[in-house]
Amino acid sequence: MKKITKDTKIGWIGTGVMGAAMVNRLQESGYSCTVYNRTKAKAKACIAKGATWVETPQKVAEHAEIIFTIVGFPQDVREVYLGEDGVLAGAKAGSILVDMTTTEPSLAQEIYQAGQKQQVSTIDAPVSGGDIGAKNGGLSIMVGGDREAVDTIMPLFEIMGKNIVYQGEAGSGQHTKMCNQITIAGTMIGVCECLLYAHRAGLDLTTMLQSISGGAAACWTLDNLAPRVVDRNFDPGFYVEHFIKDMGIALTEANHMGLALPGLALVKQLYEAVKAQGHGKLGTQALTLGLEALNGFKN
């Protein structure tokens, strides 16, 4: 693959909460993009800023040299890459395909093997940082795949993220994202329970957060999501249903390794309850709603 320039043809599949913001970063940096999303309306902002719309993932690959994807679930990734009108059906030799969805490490390895047969490089590069990180180019990007391909597209990663770390062979990025999600699961329940405790104790929540965010409890979730809970803002930076998917992948992988992760299993069950209450499309901070219901709070 030749060096990235502003003439490099970029393809993007998946223009949801995260994807649309990431495409926007590339467009504002002067790159032209060809886009596809199952629901065209969600690509409206990208198209308005000059992106070219096509009707299938295959068409994206036919128009682009580097194709990024960030979709919902493993079955979506499989369809987008390996389906009849998927990316690999249209990818040219020498193309680089970058999946930024959080998905199964084994699927990342399967896509890598399929790409090798077509002389196409594939990279798994899931991200962390939510909608805020996507908008401001501050994402953490966890990267697996062949180092040469990763080095080639690094200028594009640097537009989207601040903490970009190469983890190793195909699937390594996804395994690292599982570590990230396991950590977030434990952190999220701590943050939400602390807010419930503070409320019941009669503290001013904002004042309480000023104290603990400057000490050993300091973390991204406390800084970015706790204030949303205080404001009763449960809009999604990352969907509850997608987090449940991620925790399920991590638990399955842990089972394959013979690991017991009881903390993760507990948090997943609590999130399943939140989804059952009809909150699957809310942000992960909506765990608060499930814990409030458990404690008899009136919303």
Summarize the structure in short:
Strands 1, 2, 3, 4, 5, 6, 7, 8 and 9 form a nine-stranded mixed β-sheet that branches.
Description:
- With 299 residues, this protein is of the alpha/beta class.
- The protein is built from 15 helices and 9 strands.
- It has helices at residues 17-28, 44-48, 57-63, 74-82, 87-90, 105-117, 130-136, 147-160, 172-200, 205-212, 220-224, 226-230, 240-257, 262-279, 287-294; strands at residues 10-13, 33-36, 52-53, 66-69, 96-99, 121-124, 127-128, 139-145, 161-168.
- Strands 1, 2, 3, 4, 5, 6, 7, 8 and 9 form a 9-stranded mixed sheet that branches.
- Strand 8 (139-145), helix 8 (147-160) and strand 9 form a beta-alpha-beta unit.
- Helix 9 packs across helix 15 and helix 13 packs antiparallel against helix 14 (262-279).
- 42% of the residues are buried.
- The model has no long low-confidence stretch (mean pLDDT 96).
